Amino acid sequence: MTKKPKLIEPSESEDAAITSAALDDPDNPPLTESGLARMKRLPQRRQGQRGPGKTPAKVSVTLRLDPDIVAHFKRGGAGWQTRMNEALRAVLGGKR
Fold first, then answer.
1. C-alpha 85: how far from its chain's center?
2. Residue 28: C-alpha distances to residues 23, 24, 42, 92 (Å)
């Protein structure tokens, strides 16, 4: 069992120095109540759900193929499904 490292809290003077440095950082101004109110709340989506106006570019299918066909495309490494799609598109004459 791995023991969790103990959290070391900064002293009051260290915390004050850290806070002061953060407040002086021009690239990271502190968040104010009005700034928080202006922020847009992002819509909640389920995992894998696409945003509004996004139509799927591909259709997910289940397909049974001979093992040697799949092996042929997988031998080429990553992107084998894209190469298989391109090969099928070539059979159609490149038509969309």
1. 24
2. 8, 8, 22, 54
pTM comes to: 0.43
Q: How far apart are CA 42 and CA 52, in angstroms?
A: 12
CB-CB contact of 73 with 83 (8 Å): yes
Query: Tell me, what DSSP letter sits at residue 45?
Result: -
Characterize 40-66 residue by residue with b for buried, 16 or more Cβ atoms within 10 angstroms of its Cβ, and e for exposed: eeeeeeeeeeeeeeeeeeeeeeeeeee
Helices vs. strands in the chain: H and E counts, helices first:
4, 0
Q: Please state, in angstroms and rounded to a whole number, the distance separating the CA atoms of residues 12 and 10.
A: 7
Q: Count Cβ atoms below 10 Å from residue 31 Cβ, excluding itself.
A: 9
List pLDDT tens digits, range 10-50. 999 999 999 899 999 989 888 888 888 888 777 777 777 77
Nearest to 10 by CA among 20, 1, 2: 20
